[in-house]
Amino acid sequence: MWRCSRPVPVALRRLSGRSAELRAWRWGSTTACERALQYRVGEKMHGYTVSQVTPVPELFLTAVKLDHDGTGARHLHLAREDSNNLFSVQFRTTPMDSTGVPHILEHTVLCGSQKYPCRDPFFKMLNRSLSTFMNAFTASDYTMYPFSTQNPKDFQNLLSVYLDAAFFPCLRELDFWQEGWRLEHEDPTDPKTALVFKGVVFNEMKGAFADSERVFSQHLQNQLLPDHTYAAVSGGAPLCIPDLTWEQLREFHAKHYHPSNARFLTYGNFPLEEHLRQIHEEALSKFQRIEPNTAVPPQQRWEMPREHHVHCAPDALAAGSPRQTTVSVSFLLPDSLTGPRAANWSQIYLGQKREGSFSNILIGCHSGSFASHALPSRAGAWCERDRGVGLSARCAMDFLITDARSTHPRIFI
Ligand SMILES: [Zn+2]
Q1: N or C terminus of the chain: which is more exposed, having fewer CB within 10 Å?
Q2: What is the 206 CA–ligand 1 centroid distance (Å)?
């Protein structure tokens, strides 16, 4: 939630309309926060327009929000007197199947780009850079590429590699076969051996779904939000990954990795204007605005509770493998991000994070009304181990989960 902007200082108002003087005054300031406070709503620089300037004294930072005029890309800069500067670009990636296209794309864009067509420029930077963090993540409905560094030149270099990777990747067919999936002989030197599926993401997801808790939480989200992208496995279900083609991967990139579908974040004490100039010149100025239509519509509510059972192999390392049944009662919550109750849910989240109070109210004691109604009648006596409750904010629609792992195999029969 954005705070109200601070009134413009008197001295700044006097400088209104004189941009050269304003810029000189800005860089005469000593701290990143002070410089950021001198941006004005409506001010234009390097293809962007400032839309909001907000001091956040509790966190010792000033937030500057900007829109890119040509593409609609949005940028949030958090100016703070911290030398560990951060950049991140995020795209809303909303797959409608479980082929793992956003996950395979996340891997493949890092395999070479137009300006850096060498093998894996991202990984080559790991031992050439002074970065304090480099990575990429695929979530249920977004993909992000963050890095951080304390060196201004290193920041420029990494920004160049990241921008080119995200917006101008080579996406070669061989990279797709390597990172996604392929058929290969068990012994690649012997064509008489059996054909097997291989691929970096294919193998990664086989490993992920060997974890019963991962299987459980994935099915829970898919079943509770079945109408749109949250019904899919964004990382890729091993049985579905071989349905993906190289052409589909390229189409997904063209639609989702576009500035009109992107959010940029920068943080630290390096100059914002230099970040904006580089992002505009090296990437955004080469695109026209589109309507990506990647938003996720609200989940339709249903009238009656629904049940879903999922089977998986027991955890061989856990004691008492026949007693690993897990039950969950989950509820889709009101729209916390855009709905009228946003403020209330925000307070609940803060309360939960601060004291665990929300969880305690619900199931913290045996006589708690929520626990006695939500869990099966006999569960209280048997579910002393691994009982939990939590709010999931992994996607745009939040849900409340209570779960319990049975210590008795017949409890849920
Ligand atoms: Zn991966």
Answers
A1: N
A2: 11
Q: Is residue 204 among the annotated active site residues?
A: no
Contact criterion met (CB below 8 Å) for 236 and 158: no
Which stretches of the chain drop beneath a pLDDT of 50? 1-18, 22, 25, 337-338, 340-343, 345-347, 349-357, 359, 363-369, 371, 375-386, 407-413
In tens, the pLDDT along 206-231 reads 999 888 888 888 988 899 889 999 99
Q: How far is the CA of 362 from the centre of ligand 1 (A)?
A: 36
> Which residue segments constitute the domains of the chain, with CATH numbers given?
82-313 (3.30.830.10), 321-405 (no CATH)
pLDDT, tens digit, 9 for 90 and up, residues 385-404: 445 556 565 666 666 666 66
CA 390 to mean position of chain CA atoms: 19
Q: Say whether 281 is catalytic.
A: no
Ramachandran angles phi, psi of 142, nearest 5°:
-155, 160
Q: Which two tokens stand for residue 87?
A: 């950049």
Tokens of 390: 């939590």
Neighbours of ion ligand 1 (CB under 5 A): 204
The catalytic position among 106, 204, 213, 247 is 106
